[in-house]
Amino acid sequence: MPSGVSYVIENRRAMTRIFPSLFAEQHVVPVDGYAHKLLSALRAAAPAGTQDPRVVVLTPGPSNAAYFEHALLARLMGVQLVEGHDLACRNNRVWMRTTRGEVPVHVVYRRLDDDFLDPLHFRPDSVIGCPGIMNAAQAGNVTLANAVGNGIADDKLLYTYVPELIRYYLSEEPVLPNVESYRPDEPGQLEAVLDQIDQLVVKPVDGAGGMGIVIGPKADAKTLERTRKAVAADPRGWIAQRPVALSTSPTLAGERMAPRHIDLRPFAVNDGTDVWVLPGGLTRVALQEGNLIVNSSQGGGSKDTWVLAEGPAEQPEPVTPDGAPPEVAPRQLGPDGNPMVVQEGAQQ
Question: Which of 45, 165, 204, 280 is the most exposed, fewest CB within 10 Å of its CB?
Answer without folding.
Answer: 165
